Amino acid sequence: MRQASLASMSVATILIFAKGVAWLITDSVGMLSSLIDSALDLVSSLITFVAIRQALIPADEDHRFGHGKAEALAGVAQAGFIAASAGGLVLTVADRFLHPRPVQQEFAGVLVSGLAIALTVALMLFQSHVVRRTNSIAIGADKAHYTTDFVTNIAVGVGILASSRLGQPLIDLAVAMGVAIYLVTNAWAIGRISIDVLMDRELPPRDRQRILDIVQRQPGVRSVHDLRTRSSGLTQFIQLHVVLHPNMSLGRAHVIGDTIQAAIEEAYPQAEVILHIDPRDDSADPQAAGS
To answer: Which of 87, 112, 156, 232 has a 20 to 30 A CA-CA distance from 105?
Structure first.
């Protein structure tokens, strides 16, 4: 996760310099939009780097559940930065619409867009690998930025070339406005996921059903209820009540509880499981489990 964050900052720094030079040469609003996006990515990557360092700190006396929500806080901050940059870009597009200027020396813009595409693809592949291994919200949000960059860089390169060759500055403005709309869409998606974590939203229904299936497959389990789940950073927190026969010995109940906990942790290696045993003869109670 730290390596992915450092790679992200390195790529953003290179692209800011290259796009800044290209913008000065071409005077393209599309290139300016891409430059703003890369500058935003650098700020977001810095936030991500700090959040990851905080999130990976083990639980302590003041934070018994760990520091994982630092990632979600970073995601909210990133969403805010993305939305703000989109608003600033819209204002720039409006000003250029009122005072149009042609794109100049399009070759520089196309060359920088090609460089940006190559670096972005390499970074996205690495980030995808990290997200698959860690399920990190912060890295996932950062990858969303660079997914935007990938589309943006293609659009900007094509827009600069078409605008210059056809002598139509509005093509450049249309590309920039499309980037702004795309930024807002990504800001909404990142913010929603991050807020869900901060608000302790339940794990997806497929995960809840998987947990119930794991528990109900264990011998001796009569039913399960009060399943509660949430996530914080890399950790999932799973709480549930398991109903066993009241005449079962304490030792046997303890063994079954340990077996259930081990089975859940095998399926969810990052999970912390809290299991409560209910000794109740519910053979006559047809109520469905897992409520």
So the answer is: 87
